[in-house]
Structures are given as C-alpha cells and as structure tokens.
Design goal:
α3 (100-111) crosses α4 (116-129). The strands form two sheets. The chain has a six-stranded mixed β-sheet, with helices on both faces. The protein has a four-stranded antiparallel β-sheet with strand order 2-1-4-5, covered by helices on one side. It has 250 residues and is α/β, with parallel strands linked by helices. Helix content is 37%, strand content 26%. It is built from ten helices and ten strands. The chain has a single domain (5-245), classed as P-loop containing nucleotide triphosphate hydrolases (Rossmann fold, 3-Layer(aba) Sandwich). Bound molecules: adenosine-5'-triphosphate. The site of adenosine-5'-triphosphate (ATP) has 12 residues, from β2 and α1.
Length: 250
C-alpha cells in the first residue's frame, strides 16, 4: 500500500555546510515524484533523509520534519522498520554476493519468519513483478553478481519490494544502464507506483517527463519550485528552472 511522504522546513547540515535550506515538499502516494537539478544541489541528500540514510554520516545534522503519512520518521520509527517501509535502490546496481534467491529473500527472512513455501512464493511473485522471473527461474541458485547491469538493477528493485515497502526511493537508478535496460527500469518504476510511492533522483530530463507525475527542481540546496511535471516543464515559474530545463546550466 502506498503512503505519502512529506518534508516540512527541513534544514540539513554537513558540519558547517548547509546542504538543504528550509525545504517543504509533499510527495504524493501512488505517484512518481522526480527530484531534478544541477550536480550538488542536494537531491540525493534529500532522498537519503527520507529513510534516514544520512544518520550514518558523521557531522550530519537534520532540523525539521520528515513524515511518512502523518508520522515523523525521526521520532516514531526504529530505523530498521523505517527502511523496510521506505526501500531504496542506488545508482550502481548492488546485488549482495549471494544467490538470486537469497538476494530476494534476504529482507523477508530478516523481518519475519517465513516457511520455505512462503519464501518460494515471494521469490516468484517479486521476480515476476520486476519482469525477471522468466530470465532467471532456472538459475535461482546462481550468484546475483552474475547478472547483467540491467538485470542486477531489477533484482535490487525486487529485493527492495520483497518486504512490502510503502515507498521506493531511487537514486539515479538508470545512470549506469544501457538504453534498453533504462527503458525496462522506467516502465517498472511507473508500474511500481501503482501501489507504492516512488521518489526518483534523475539527471535525465526526458526520464523525468516520461515517468514522473510531480517534479521538484532544486538549486544550491533550495527547492526552487515543485509542480505537476507537464506544468513544470511547460511553464516554469522561476527563471532558474527555465534556464536549467533549457540547458543554460547544469
Ligand atoms: N557525506 C557528505 N559529507 C559532506 N558533504 C556532503 C556529503 N554528501 C554530500 N555533501 C555535500 O552536500 C551538497 C549536496 O550534495 P548531494 O550529493 O545531495 O547533491 P546532488 O544534487 O545529489 O548531486 P549529484 O547530482 O552530483 O549527485 C554538496 O555540496 C555536497 O558536496
């Protein structure tokens, strides 16, 4: 089941450096929201706040609210429970050095007790959902590291989805992939958003227009504007957004 996320008056500091400045943004349930903006503007930093991945960084300090539904993720959740609810896939596919089967069942085993029959069912359903089942069903015992980049990224998405998250965060998930694999992951993101909230960081403007319903443009740690994607691209309100979208900088 999808759940919305939002941040309210969010400031984030890496030591003395303020990387996010008073960000307030809603990310609607069951939609794809895209974060765009030039390198270093804070997109990945904001994404990592949503499941508290920044907690691991020494000197990182967060002020303001990060909400999953109506619940503050910094106050109410154990971080492991939060990361089950808010899954993440990264720029570089990172399957665990385990079998394909064990990659998918890693989370379910960790978060609950499942019989072999239940785990088999989770593997088939989840790999079918990411369009990988027919390609791997006869080699589930092969290492996840033996897959192509595109297959490995879909395995990582399956691994994240196997624990029934409400939100899936994607940090430039296609930047290391060829065009065909990119298309498959984009289709998958749209499909996943039917029953999850998807939030994606992308440098690819066409990708943002192809898959996102809402788009947020960041510049130097500020949220410049956020709007339904067709509106943001057709009629940006801020000159900086327009300049970025038309390739004047970035
Ligand atoms: N672990 C860290 N420690 C200190 N500063 C950091 C850290 N991670 C990011 N920053 C700084 O925070 C700012 C925002 O970085 P961030 O990676 O969020 O930007 P981005 O928009 O995702 O960039 P890119 O598109 O290049 O990935 C940058 O100035 C960056 O140097």
């Amino acid at each position: 089941m999808a759940e919305s996320m939002s941040v309210q008056n969010l400031n984030l500091y890496y030591g003395d450096h303020q990387a996010l400045k008073d960000i307030t943004l809603d990310m609607p349930a069951g939609k794809v929201t895209a974060f765009i903006g030039p390198s270093g503007c804070g997109k990945s930093t904001l994404l990592r706040c949503l499941n508290r991945m920044n907690d691991r960084i020494d000197g990182c300090r967060v002020e303001g609210k990060v909400l999953l539904g109506k619940t503050d993720v910094y106050e109410k959740y154990d971080v492991y429970e939060l990361r089950r609810r808010v899954g993440m896939v990264f720029q570089k596919p990172n399957p665990f050095p385990l079998s394909i089967y064990d990659n998918v069942t890693y989370g379910p085993r960790h978060y609950g007790h499942h019989s072999k029959a239940e785990l088999d069912e989770i593997v088939e359903t989840t790999l079918t959902g990411v369009g990988l089942w027919d390609e791997v069903k006869d080699k589930l015992d092969h290492s996840g590291l033996s897959l192509s980049g595109g297959q490995a990224q879909r395995l990582c998405i399956a691994r994240a989805l196997a624990v029934n998250p409400e939100v899936l965060l994607m940090d430039e998930p296609t930047s290391a992939l060829d065009p065909i694999s990119t298309g498959l992951v984009e289709e998958l993101a749209v499909k996943v958003a039917r029953d999850h909230t998807v939030i994606i960081v992308t440098h690819n403007m066409e990708q943002a227009t192809r898959i996102s319903s809402k788009c947020a443009f960041f510049y130097l740690g500020e949220l410049v504007e956020a709007a339904p994607t067709p509106e943001l691209f057709a009629t940006p309100k801020d000159k900086r957004t327009e300049d970025y979208l038309t390739g004047r900088f970035g």
